[in-house]
């Protein structure tokens, strides 16, 4: 992994105001190493989704610089995959069509229909939802829709992957299983990733760096290095002393920032 100052995703002096004129987030300065994962936690309304929307190119106005390897992140070569907070699936298309359409639109590969179908099956299998291929999103549970949205995000092989609380509203066991599936997929296709969660433990388990967004928008986010836990075998993390220590560190920062 390269760590030079310009590599990966660089967010410099990002400020966003919606039409009200109130800041939507505390100014963000952040580097996500290329092929790295940074997790973001913060109270409701602290601007986590706004930060992802800015990087995704969905905001008409913002101040500051959003760079990938030194060039604008919105350069057309940089494909950005977003898993929005509400999953963003097309309700009138089946699960497999949702994934196939995303692959076609992003033109990551000019593949034959057969090849695309094969890849769709591969990604469904990788998220443990092969049996849902012909279902429609609104007939699925929230957790199943989340799996489809993640399969779709990986299927387009994005340069940058943005996930907005992708495992919210899941029971603890399902959530742990999905964290593992997500990491397995990510290790095979390590997109440069920003992952929003409201769960401290999830932030520590999945991020090599953890950002704590402040409640006060005059304040800045805190950045906590987490390489020690990140570098461990995933199944060993939760029971490790380093994980326990990091939980204490981050809870203390949260008390200061929230
Ligand atoms: N389209 C919009 N127009 C005006 N204000 C907005 C808009 N979207 C978000 N905001 C405001 O910007 C701030 C940040 O919102 P954002 O949705 O980014 O927070 P969040 O951290 O993702 O919250 P949550 O944890 O509830 O998802 C909030 O004060 C919110 O009210
Ligand atoms: Mg949000």
UniProtKB/TrEMBL annotation:
Name of protein: ABC transporter domain-containing protein
ABC transporter domain ranges (all copies): 9-240
GO function terms (MF aspect): ATP binding; ATP hydrolysis activity
PANTHER family documented for this protein: ABC TRANSPORTER ATP-BINDING PROTEIN, TAURINE IMPORT ATP-BINDING PROTEIN-RELATED
Keyword annotations from UniProtKB, A to Z: ATP-binding, Nucleotide-binding, Transport
Keyword presence, Phosphoprotein: no
Superkingdom of origin organism: Bacteria
Upper lineage: Bacteria, Bacillati, Bacillota, Bacilli, Bacillales
PROSITE patterns per record: ABC_TRANSPORTER_1, ABC_TRANSPORTER_2
């Amino acid at each position: 992994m390269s760590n030079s100052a310009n590599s990966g995703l660089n967010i410099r002096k990002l400020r966003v105001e919606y039409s009200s004129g109130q800041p939507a987030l505390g100014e963000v300065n952040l580097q996500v190493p290329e092929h790295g994962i940074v997790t973001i936690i913060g109270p409701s309304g602290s601007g986590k989704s706004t930060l992802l929307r800015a990087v995704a190119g969905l905001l008409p106005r913002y101040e500051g610089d959003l760079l990938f390897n030194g060039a604008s992140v919105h350069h057309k070569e940089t494909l950005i995959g977003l898993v929005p907070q509400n999953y963003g699936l097309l309700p009138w298309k089946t699960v497999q069509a949702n994934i196939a359409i995303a692959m076609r639109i992003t033109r990551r590969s000019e593949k034959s229909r057969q090849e695309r179908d094969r890849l769709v099956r591969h990604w469904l299998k990788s998220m443990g939802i092969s049996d849902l291929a012909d279902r429609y999103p609104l007939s699925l549970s929230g957790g199943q829709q989340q799996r489809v949205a993640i399969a779709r995000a990986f299927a387009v092989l994005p340069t940058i992957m943005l996930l907005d609380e992708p495992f919210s509203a899941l029971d603890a066991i399902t959530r742990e299983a999905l964290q593992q599936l997500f990491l397995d997929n990510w290790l095979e296709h390590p997109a440069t990733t920003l992952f929003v969660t409201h769960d401290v433990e999830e932030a520590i388990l999945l991020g090599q760096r953890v950002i704590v967004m402040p409640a006060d928008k005059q304040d800045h986010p805190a950045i906590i290095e987490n390489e020690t836990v990140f570098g461990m075998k995933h199944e060993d993390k939760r029971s490790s002393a380093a994980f326990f220590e990091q939980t204490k560190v981050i809870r203390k920062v949260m008390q200061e920032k929230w």
